[in-house]
Amino acid sequence: TQSTGSSGINAEYGGVQGAKGQKGSAGKPGIPGDAAQTIQLNPYIVAFHSQKNVAPKCFDGMTELWTGYSFMFVDGAEARKWGQNLGGAGSCVPDFYPGFLGISDIDAVTYGASVDKTVWIATAPDKMDLNYQESLPRRQLRLKSSDRAEILSYISRCAVCESIFKMVVVHSMNNQVPDCPDGYVPAASPNRMIAGTNSKEWTGYSYWAREVNEYPLGVMTDDPAACLLYYAPNTIVECNTATCAVRIKISNWLIDVNQDVEQYSSLLYYHDAEKFVSRCRVCHRPEATNIQYINQ
Prior knowledge:
There is one protein chain. By secondary structure, this protein is mostly beta strands. It has 3 helices and 18 strands. It has helices spanning 132-135, 147-153, 270-273, and strands at residues 44-49, 63-75, 81-83, 92-93, 102-104, 109-111, 117-121, 141-142, 157-163, 167-171, 185-186, 203-212, 215-218, 227-228, 235-239, 243-248, 250-253, 279-284. The strands form 3 sheets. Strands 1, 2, 3, 4, 7, 8, 9, 15 and 16 form a 9-stranded antiparallel sheet that branches. Strands 10, 11, 12, 13, 14, 17 and 18 form a 7-stranded antiparallel sheet that branches. A two-stranded antiparallel ribbon has the order 5-6. β15 and β16 (243-248) form a beta hairpin.
């Protein structure tokens, strides 16, 4: 019969328990796990307008949702007028639908009347083109004809992007491009990939509103869309259900408050007026450029 030994003695084998051994070497790395996935449930949706007939690009780290045509507002009969915030997705229509207004009552839905117009951002002229206004088509361009390609050449393209970071716009109220606030860095230009773009940063001109038949329809000045890349004060493309025309309309811009505009009685070209317009810059937090994105 085996007896039970005193503490520290293994009665079965009779030996004394040894000291604790040394720590072993590290094992081999395991198989990599699945990448973590972050879902942004409330992302920022922004629209960029190139003022060219080439679509702009979303920033690195943004997701492009669609590209399209830069839609501004509807100029309907009987005071049926409304505008789109140029920074919102509704201002970028995926396909060019010039006469999409319908009228509904209890009995029927009718197609938009010929007097109802949709208004689109026109492409900005080249700064050196002093004959730009004279070169614009003076006739109505018919949509269902070979004129359609010419119409599209005058309409700005746009892109709608999903972002996890927000941007801020700064207006200088003078003719100098402002700096970003402390803690912010300049945003890239949405047109940085378009040939002929001079600046790789988003700087521009402080835009406020267009005016059509005494109705001002514009953009919030705290929206990046209020910083248009090009100063193009007068031109829009106005369409009804059958035709389009390039129009010269009144536009409103923030001005350089340090200059006396009234002393200049005759501004022959928009190039001359440009120096009286407030400049602007779009910025974001520097951390936005350091985010790592993994495509699954």
